[in-house]
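Backbone-to-sequence.
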C-alpha cells in the first residue's frame, strides 16, 4: 500500500488556516469605549462602564470563546474633536471590534462618520438626540431618544389637568429635541406652551430662567437638562425661587431626577412626576439581579442609573451577537444580527428596530417618593413599545 504524498504547499496552507482559526479563537473581542470620564460629566463614563462591569460580573469576561477587552478613552466632556481623535486611534491602532459608550450627543455625532469609514459597529449607550442613528449604518442605540421619553410626558400632562406649561431646555441637540417633541404632542392635546427658554450646556446659571418661568405663571415647568449635576442645580434654583410654593409643578423626561443624584437633591424632589425608560426602583427579577451585580462590580455605594443600564444592555447585545456569529465579528454580519435583537433588560423588554437601529421600549410614568432606603422614582403608569416618534 502506498502512502499518499502531501505536498509541502498543502501542509503550509493547512498550518496557516489552523493558525488563523486559532488566532480568531484566542483574540479578545476589543471594545473601544469612548466616554466622559473626567470633568463635569464624569459620572456618565463611570455609570456606563459600571453597567458593563455588572454584565461581566454576572456572565464572566468572555463570549463565544473570546475574552472581552475594554479599552477606556476619556473625552473629558463635550469635546467632539477629542472624541474623534480617540475613536480614530481605537480603530486604526487598536483595531477594535466595536466602538461603544458615548454619553453626550456631540461626541457621538463626531464619531459616527468614522464608524462608516472604518466599518466598525458603534453602540451608543446614552447620547439621545434623535438624529444620531441616521449618521451611520454601522450605528445602533441601546439607550433612548429624547422624543421617545418626552412624548409620553406631554400626553400624561395633558390628560391630567395641566394646560399651561413653560419650557426650559439645555441649548443643544437633545434639549431642542425635547422642546420640539413636548410642544408638538402637548399642543396637539390642547395644551399651551406659554413661554420657553434655552440654557447653555456649559456652566448654566438657572436662576434667571427659573424666575422668568415663574413670572409667566404656568401650571408646570417642563425641563430637560443633561442628567447629573445640572439636575441638582436646577431643582435648587426652582425651590429657592419659590416655584414649588407657588404651586408650579416640575415635569419632563427623567434626566432631571437622575437616580445617581436623587439622594443629593433631597426632599424638594418629592412628588416630581417624570417619564423615562429606567428607574432603579423598577420591580423585576432582572433588575434585582442587575443591581446586585452592579454593587458587586462597582464596590457598592452608588446606585445604577439609566446610563448604567444602557451600558449593561449594550454589553449584553455585543455578547449575544458574538454568540450568534460564533465569534466571527464581520461588521455587516454584526449589524444584521443587531437589527431586531430583543433583550429582557433590567428596564423591561427592549428591541432594536431593524429599520432605524434605534431602541424600542416601554416608557414609564414615575413619581419621586421616599422608600425605605432613600428617594426613588416610583413607576405608576407606562406606555409600552414606544419608538422614536420622529422615525
Ligand atoms: C446627550 O448629550 O445626548 C444626553 C446627555 C445627558 C442626558 C441625555 C442626553 O441625560
Amino acid at each position: 500500500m502506498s502512502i499518499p504524498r502531501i505536498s509541502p504547499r498543502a501542509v503550509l496552507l493547512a498550518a496557516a488556516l489552523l493558525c488563523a482559526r486559532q488566532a480568531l479563537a484566542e483574540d479578545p473581542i476589543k471594545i473601544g469605549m469612548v466616554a466622559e470620564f473626567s470633568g463635569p460629566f464624569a459620572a456618565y463614563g463611570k455609570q456606563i462602564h459600571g453597567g458593563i462591569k455588572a454584565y461581566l460580573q454576572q456572565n464572566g469576561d468572555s463570549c463565544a470563546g473570546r475574552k472581552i477587552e475594554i479599552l477606556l478613552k476619556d473625552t473629558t466632556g463635550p469635546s467632539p474633536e477629542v472624541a474623534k481623535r480617540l475613536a480614530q486611534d481605537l480603530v486604526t491602532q487598536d483595531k477594535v471590534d466595536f466602538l461603544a459608550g458615548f454619553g453626550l450627543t456631540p461626541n457621538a455625532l463626531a464619531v459616527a462618520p468614522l464608524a462608516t469609514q472604518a466599518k466598525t459597529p458603534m453602540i451608543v449607550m446614552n447620547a439621545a438626540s434623535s438624529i444620531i442613528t441616521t449618521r451611520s449604518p454601522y450605528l445602533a442605540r441601546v439607550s433612548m431618544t429624547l422624543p421617545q421619553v418626552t412624548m409620553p410626558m406631554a400626553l400624561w400632562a395633558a390628560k391630567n389637568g395641566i394646560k399651561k406649561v413653560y419650557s426650559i431646555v439645555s441649548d443643544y441637540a437633545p434639549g431642542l429635541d425635547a422642546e420640539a417633541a413636548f410642544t408638538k404632542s402637548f399642543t396637539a392635546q390642547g395644551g399651551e406652551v406659554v413661554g420657553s427658554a434655552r440654557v447653555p450646556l456649559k456652566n448654566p446659571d438657572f436662576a434667571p430662567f427659573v424666575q422668568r418661568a415663574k413670572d409667566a405663571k404656568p401650571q408646570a415647568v417642563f425641563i430637560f437638562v443633561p442628567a447629573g449635576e445640572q439636575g441638582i442645580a436646577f431643582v435648587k434654583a426652582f425651590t429657592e425661587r419659590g416655584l414649588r410654593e407657588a404651586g408650579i409643578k416640575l415635569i419632563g423626561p427623567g434626566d432631571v431626577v437622575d437616580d445617581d443624584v436623587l439622594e443629593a437633591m433631597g426632599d424638594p424632589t418629592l412628588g416630581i412626576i417624570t417619564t423615562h425608560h429606567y428607574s432603579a426602583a423598577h420591580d423585576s427579577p432582572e433588575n434585582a439581579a442587575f443591581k446586585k451585580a452592579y454593587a458587586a462590580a462597582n464596590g457598592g455605594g452608588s446606585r445604577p442609573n439609566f446610563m448604567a443600564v444602557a451600558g449593561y444592555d449594550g454589553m449584553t447585545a455585543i455578547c449575544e451577537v458574538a454568540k450568534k456569529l460564533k465569534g466571527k465579528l464581520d461588521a455587516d454580519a454584526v449589524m444584521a444580527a443587531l437589527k431586531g435583537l430583543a433583550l429582557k433588560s433590567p428596564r423591561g423588554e427592549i428591541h432594536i428596530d431593524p429599520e432605524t437601529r434605534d431602541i424600542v421600549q416601554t416608557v414609564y410614568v414615575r413619581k419621586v417618593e421616599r422608600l425605605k432606603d432613600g428617594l426613588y422614582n416610583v413607576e405608576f403608569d407606562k406606555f409600552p413599545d414606544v419608538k422614536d416618534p420622529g422615525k
